[in-house]
Amino acid sequence: MKFFSLRLWYLLAAICCAALLGYALYSQHKMFLDPCPLCIFQRVAFMWIGVWALVGALFNPGGKWRWTVTTLMTIGAIVGGAIAWRHVWLQGLPLDQVPECGPGLAYMMDTLPFWNVLKTVLEGDGACAEVQWQFLGLSMPAWTLVWFIGLGLVTIFLTIRQARVEGRT
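The structure assignment produced for this chain is given below.
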């Protein structure tokens, strides 16, 4: 019984990533919610997942290539989820423990070596601790964490299922 094809999942995952990125841009440009550096890194993770999902949808890879696409999507979900987890953690800190606000990402990219920028961004700052938006009691980083977990787990589950189905035929 063919319940749900992996190729269709790849397409849906790519569409989800595009929609999430579209909403992030909408919230930035129409709702005037400026993204902090951690938000920007989460967007990059969704771009990564979306690109690999689109590759999977277009080429419908089999065998080791299917596992390569799934692995690359899962890496994006894990990295994005870790960044979102850190972001949610920062938002939950008591006010007296929130780190000072630092320079903007563009300034850091212009003046610091890449690894220093990465370290500084992942540490987070006061701008990352501010909750600007909520839906059903969850902040935007909390929702991105939910999406990263969901995209990663469903991709792994459907890839394993597809491998088992093909192993029986």
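Interim note for the steering committee: The first strand starts at residue 134 and ends at 135. Strands lie at 134-135, 138-139.
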